[in-house]
Amino acid sequence: MDDLLPGMLDLARDGGDTLTRQLTDQLRDLIIRGRLAPGQRLPSSRQLAQSLDVSRNTVSFAIEQLAAEGYLSLSAGRRPMVAAGLSLDRRRISPQGNRAASARLSLSAWAGSLHRASWPPVHDGRPRPFQPGLADEREFPHDVWSRCLRRAARNAPLRRDRPINHPPLQEALLGHLVVHRGIKAKASQILILPTAQSGLTLAANVLLERGDHAWIESPGYGGANVALHAAGAVVSAMPLDAQGMAISSPRDAPRLIFVTPSHQYPTGRLMPIGRRLELLRFAETTGACIIEDDYDGEFHYEARPVAALQGLAASPRVFYLGTFSKATYADIRFGYLVVPEALIDVFEIAQRHMGMLTSITMQDALAEFIGAGAYLGHIRRMTRLYKGRRDRMLQALAAEAGDRLSIEVPAGGMQLLARCQTNDRQLSARLLEAGVVSRPLSNMLYHRTGEQGLFLGFAAWNEKEIDQAARILGRIVR
């Protein structure tokens, strides 16, 4: 072995790694592969250094490192020995072996179903018309936001008390929600979360036991469907009528109901006051909780915004979910959840346990952005702009697609639903090839129906972009 070992080692003098690192790694690899067997003695450090033409310190450091890791045994006056009793898998694992091993890994039923899920929709590359759910970041007051961020960053070392939900942001956001969305709450009831989807996941995990029944709208938001299923709920798809979710009296009462009453996702329908009160009474009667997703409730075009469901009654059963990404732009992805006062403590503990924490510096910047009036000013300006874009899109689609599409005109929001008579998944795929992004309605349906349509966003696109994309859509639809 004294003669053979140096020939098993190949140290690069001009390599990126030090000689000590190379020697350590190569000796370790020889032991793992079984070329140096347990109980086998190595040359002395002096002999090995001479054979490899390296310093004795280089060899000594490598041997001491491997001894510390348990690969070698050292004893005074004796040469290093490969540790006895090592039980190592000496098979060389090929990439094919790795793939085969991965295939044998046991996954949860939820994880195993992910490849079949139609949510979230993913489009590679830059955003393109008519991709839904996007604000126009070109119109965002980036200079104002940058100043808020810089001040927040400078103030960061001065903050000693760091609660996970920043009180200045809770206060600023509450002031906005009370006036403009009719929310009834205290600032401490607002949890600041990485995304609105994480708020949905948090609420589902806190409120649901595995096997509990939950309702979602159909067609509806795919993120709610996956969050409730992941929490172990038995999810029922509730069809819509002209007023939104059709409320029935099932044999198995729901533990949780997810709704989008301000602009139903994806139809854009506004749930009228009568249906809202009916839903609240149903929840009280059955003991159900309601998650109200007000994802783009800031934008109303035909009348004053309708107050949120959460503010209609002093109910401890309504959880109000919102996001900053729609009213600002996609990089400000913070979401927030208004929880009943009695549940603040348990929700904050669950928030910590699930790691749903956000940067205090970013929260501080948002607090200033809202408190200084920049947030409301931006919403008001974008409401005017988005209304014009909605109207332009309606005109362009009518001119290019004519009677091939039936459009539900939304009273607000950032996207619309255009129903069609052809296979919407095939149509959406053809549009994507031509550079136009849409979402097929059939991917958002959770009950059996023959409805077909395209979900199209207008908020992020200017008039020229809308006209160009409408011409492509019209040509393909025709």
pLDDT < 50 runs, ≥5 residues: 90-95
Question: How many DSSP helices?
Answer: 16
CATH superfamily of the largest domain: Type I PLP-dependent aspartate aminotransferase-like (Major domain)
Helix content: 40-55%
* Average pLDDT, all residues: 89
Please give the largest β-sheet: 8 strands, mixed
CATH architecture of the largest domain: 3-Layer(aba) Sandwich
Order of helices and strands: HHHHEEHHHHEHEHEEEHEEEHHHEEHEEH
Tally of distinct domains:
3
What is the straight-line distance between the termini?
80 Å
Strand ordering within the main sheet: 3-10-9-8-7-4-5-6
Q: Which class of the largest domain in CATH terms?
A: Alpha Beta
Strand pairing plus helix content: what structural class?
A: alpha/beta
Please tell me what the overall shape is: elongated
CATH topology of the largest domain: Aspartate Aminotransferase, domain 2
List keywords for this structure.
elongated, Aspartate Aminotransferase, domain 2, single chain, four-stranded antiparallel sheet, Arc Repressor Mutant, subunit A, eight-stranded mixed sheet, alpha/beta, 14 strands, 478 residues
